[in-house]
């Protein structure tokens, strides 16, 4: 019997990498409107990088061309990313250049198997969320255990950036200062320590459920937490479909939605209304947002959820106005009442219901833990998930611009509801519109945190910061330099420089919660550290806290 001759496809030999040449790829948005609008900014970043490499005698070659049909040169799908990487020498030095928001899964398959050194790079600017995209990509690489280096620059002239490029082309690595990171010391056995440990034991014993309306929002591989990791800390997922949310929205009557609007107006919130559905905020858009708010709480009641996350940006964006207004209201203790379907109960009356924006499961863990701990300490449990958007020096200190598309609880804003204003979401990202909860975060002491995956484990970074008030003119300048329709926080991190934070942070998001004063914030941080440690998670203290040398100074 003869052995059949199978036609086995011959694998092409991988191309050789030219000497002193690095390849450049650019991961983009899934939304073509965003890719087209952000392309000029990307061109500027690539020009800076090309000049920086040339200064060290290196060429920077694009790994994929500009598409003459779309008019941009972004990788805009996972399939396209795989195709691009098939033509790049697998051992070549590789630069991932990000000047806009990017969907990490477009390039993660290629980065996972690429053998050469990887450098992620962004422009330190606010007009497009390139820094947010960079941090999300870095977190994804960290989660999958892929080594990489990272750089950023304002305009290409800063000496640190030029030296970092030189180090990378020489060694394949960039050295960063991580002296601000401290392992958790032995805790002092205070009432705060005991409270955190008790709440950890309660969570492990009684367990909790987070409801996830579709995972993987906006390509955030870093925000998908494996069930086995979550189960290890007593948290389980209820996987929900956004189609079920949309269906439940249809069951909420106009009169009930309009009651939400009246409540907000009576509380002092104002809205910038117009008549053009394509470009302005309209009453019809608000009505759908209020229906989403009601529907989310009823579904949470159905499943006995402890927190919920709405993805929105994929799928619902083509059906419904934005989810952001509902998200911010859910996270606030004072909010429009929602009754059960039979009218017998007010759902979570007088309590915040933790929502994790963009279905970011790192925020889910953090928000759930913070909600329980802050409530037990008699503090406002409202949390805000912010994008790490940008920042600049002001009056001798670096002040970060923390910004998110609308999911800020009004208690975090100056003036509360009276300081909140509804603006229409940008049509580039939100074709169906919808209102933000716009405003300026009130000055005060905060605890910031991030739960992430590294070395196959859930880990957490904790730090202290102060939300500061800047002059109105400076606030306006910063908002106009980013997205003026979105709420903003001016934050000064304690004992953490700009570059230390950028090199260390393993997420595009950062979670914040207020405390009434610095002493209480330090106690809350201690209790939170004890809680996470009680769940078996490595706890990293970043910068100056009462538990580290420096005692909370900045």
- Counted by DSSP, the helix tally is 15
What name is given to the CATH topology of the largest domain? L-fucose Isomerase, Chain A, domain 2
Main sheet makeup: 6 strands, antiparallel, barrel
Radius of gyration: 24 Å
Shape label: globular
Q: How would you describe the overall organization of this protein?
A:
It is a single chain. This protein has two domains: 21-171, Rossmann fold (3-Layer(aba) Sandwich); 191-542, L-fucose Isomerase, Chain A, domain 2 (3-Layer(aba) Sandwich). It is built from 15 helices and 18 strands. With 554 residues, it is α/β, with parallel strands linked by helices. The strands form four sheets. The protein has a six-stranded antiparallel barrel with strand order 11-12-16-15-14-17, surrounded by four helices.
Annotate the secondary structure layout.
Elements: E1 21-25, H1 32-54, E2 59-62, H2 78-86, E3 94-98, H3 108-113, E4 118-123, H4 130-143, E5 149-153, H5 159-171, E6 181-183, H6 191-206, E7 208-213, H7 227-231, E8 235-240, H8 242-251, H9 254-267, E9 270-271, H10 283-303, E10 307-310, H11 324-330, H12 361-376, E11 383-394, E12 397-403, E13 421-422, E14 444-454, E15 457-467, H13 472-480, E16 488-493, H14 498-504, E17 509-515, H15 518-534, E18 539-542
Parallel strand pairs: 1-2, 1-3, 3-4, 4-5, 7-8, 7-10, 9-13, 15-18
Antiparallel strand pairs: 6-18, 11-12, 11-17, 12-16, 14-15, 14-17, 15-16
Helix pairs in contact: 6-15, 8-10, 9-10, 10-11, 12-15
Write a concise synopsis of the structure shown.
This protein has 554 residues and is of the alpha/beta class. It contains 15 helices and 18 strands.
């Amino acid at each position: 019997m003869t052995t059949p001759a199978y036609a086995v496809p011959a694998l092409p030999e991988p191309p050789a990498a030219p000497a002193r040449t690095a390849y450049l790829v650019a991961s983009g948005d899934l939304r073509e409107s965003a890719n087209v609008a952000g392309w000029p900014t990307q061109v500027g970043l690539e020009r800076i990088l090309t000049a920086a490499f040339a200064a060290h005698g290196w060429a920077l070659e694009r790994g994929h061309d500009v598409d003459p049909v779309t008019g941009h040169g972004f990788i805009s799908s996972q399939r396209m990313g795989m195709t691009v990487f098939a033509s790049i020498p697998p051992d070549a030095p590789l630069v991932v250049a990000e000047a806009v928001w990017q969907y990490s899964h477009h390039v993660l398959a290629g980065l996972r198997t690429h053998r050469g050194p990887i450098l992620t790079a962004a422009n330190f600017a606010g007009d497009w969320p390139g820094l947010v995209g960079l941090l999300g990509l870095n977190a994804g690489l960290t989660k999958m255990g892929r080594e990489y280096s990272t750089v950023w620059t304002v305009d290409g002239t800063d000496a640190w950036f030029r030296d970092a490029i030189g180090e990378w082309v020489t060694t394949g690595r960039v050295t960063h200062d991580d002296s601000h990171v401290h392992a958790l010391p032995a805790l002092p056995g205070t009432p705060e320590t005991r409270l955190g440990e008790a709440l950890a034991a309660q969570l492990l014993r009684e367990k909790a459920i987070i409801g996830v309306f579709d995972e993987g929002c906006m390509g955030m591989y870093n925000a998908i937490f494996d069930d086995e990791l979550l189960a290890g800390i007593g948290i389980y997922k209820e996987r929900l479909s956004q189609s079920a949310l949309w269906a439940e929205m249809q069951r909420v009557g106009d009169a009930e939605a309009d009651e939400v609007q009246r409540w907000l107006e009576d509380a002092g919130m104002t809205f910038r209304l117009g008549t053009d559905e394509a470009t302005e905020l309209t009453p019809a858009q608000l009505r759908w947002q209020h229906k989403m708010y009601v529907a989310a709480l009823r579904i949470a009641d159905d499943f006995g959820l402890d927190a919920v996350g709405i993805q929105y940006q994929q799928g619902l964006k083509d059906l419904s106005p934005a989810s952001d207004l509902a998200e911010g209201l859910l996270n606030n203790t004072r909010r429009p009442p929602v009754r059960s379907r039979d009218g017998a109960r007010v759902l979570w009356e007088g309590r915040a219901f933790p929502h994790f924006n963009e279905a970011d499961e790192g925020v889910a863990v953090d928000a759930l833990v913070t909600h329980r701990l802050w409530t037990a300490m008699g503090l406002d449990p409202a949390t805000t998930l912010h994008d790490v958007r940008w920042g600049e020096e002001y009056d001798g200190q670096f002040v970060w611009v923390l910004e998110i598309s609308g999911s800020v609880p009004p208690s975090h804003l100056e003036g509360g509801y009276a300081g909140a204003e509804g603006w229409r979401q940008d049509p580039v990202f939100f074709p169906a519109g919808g209102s933000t909860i716009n405003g300026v975060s009130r000055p005060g002491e905060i605890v910031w945190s991030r739960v992430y995956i590294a070395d196959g484990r859930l880990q957490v970074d904790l730090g202290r910061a102060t939300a500061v008030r800047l002059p109105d003119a400076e606030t306006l300048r910063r908002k106009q330099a980013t997205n003026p329709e979105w709420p903003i926080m001016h934050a000064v991190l304690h004992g953490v420089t700009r570059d230390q934070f950028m090199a260390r942070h393993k997420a595009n998001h950062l979670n914040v919660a207020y405390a009434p004063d610095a002493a209480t914030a330090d106690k809350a941080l201690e209790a939170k550290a004890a809680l996470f440690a009680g769940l078996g998670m490595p706890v990293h203290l970043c910068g100056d806290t009462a538990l580290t040398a420096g005692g909370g100074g900045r």
